[in-house]
Amino acid sequence: MGASNSSEKSAKTMNWDNLGFGLTPTDYMFVMKTSGDGCFTEGRLTRYKSIDISPSAGIFNYGQGLFEGAKAYRRADGHIQLFRIEENARRMKMGADRLCMPCPSIAQFTDAVKKTVLANRHWVPPAGKGSLYLRPLLFGSGPVLGIGPAPEYSFVIFASPIGNWYKAGASAMNLLVDRNVSRAAPGGCGGIKSITNYAPVFEVVKKAKAQGYADVLFLDATTGKNIEEVSSCNIFIVKNNVLSTPATQGTILPGITRRSIIEIATDFGYKVEEREVPLEHALDADEVFCSGTAVGITHVASITYQEKKVEYKTGEGTMSDKLRIALTGIQTGSAQDKKGWTVQLD
Ligand code: COI
């Protein structure tokens, strides 16, 4: 299914120079529902529109839902490519098992993403201006009242052209450590992309933003001593050319960007450690950066803890920048993909 002439016209009115991380509805979305046997069989593209869901749906009442984030990039030669999309499919399957939901197969997931991108191809920004963000959702859409898994599930993908996650011009972020709010606890759902992981930190992030911080850095819920994650991304520290990041042991999202950075840094010959990272190591680091699909690799300019602000090296010549250039080169097609991480769609 191709994009209609009308989509081409509306995409043509876009000012690609002013993209931020906000929703610009595109023309098509993908919808697939479980059939009588509880399995996903066939989905289809429809016009982008509101969906009709019972007020007693599992997602509304008990938060049975997951999301993913992925990006399609337009290369300088005009072709469109996706980055490690099977990894999103695998992560969704892991989360679905945890939340007792059936899940599209890897092939169904990737095929649906590709169809969604191609149907909205005119919404993929020109090379270097941003990307088309894909938001796959899996949720209990069947009615429930007693606590338990829903009787029916929906898989939906919508798309929006996006630019930078953080405000235009902000090349580095200032983080605030919050000791009072935990993002995830051992045994909970911090290690999957559960929809319920996000709203509980809105309040603390909103307060931090009101004080001028870009985001909040959360500490582990058990000891309150180790850094874990920022509201929307993973975190890395660099000290004496060694790269360290909190190990994923159930409370930290296993980021696809995070994993890619670990591989690229290892290929570059850097020592990489996945371990407990005490807050004092972060405060003593040479560089700190965040990683995620939405944020890419974003330098951290400072971390503030108990009124004390610690500043870090950012910009050209840092390890963070070297990794950022290597990763975005592969993602956007400006560097050769020797790792087989990208797939061209058109
Ligand atoms: C992403 O990086 O795609 C995410 O899912 C984070 C989200 C909170 C925007």
TrEMBL record:
N6-(pyridoxal phosphate)lysine: residues bearing it: K193
| Keywords noted in UniProt | Amino-acid biosynthesis, Aminotransferase, Branched-chain amino acid biosynthesis, Pyridoxal phosphate, Transferase
The cofactors it requires, by name, are: pyridoxal 5'-phosphate
Q: Which GO terms describe its molecular function?
A: branched-chain-amino-acid transaminase activity
Query: InterPro entries given for it?
Result: Aminotrans_IV, Aminotrans_IV_CS, Aminotransferase-like, B_amino_transII, BCAT-like_C, BCAT-like_N, BCAT_family
| Catalysed transformations (reactions) | L-leucine + 2-oxoglutarate = 4-methyl-2-oxopentanoate + L-glutamate; L-valine + 2-oxoglutarate = 3-methyl-2-oxobutanoate + L-glutamate; L-isoleucine + 2-oxoglutarate = (S)-3-methyl-2-oxopentanoate + L-glutamate
Q: Which domain of life is it from?
A: Eukaryota
Specify the protein name: Branched-chain-amino-acid aminotransferase
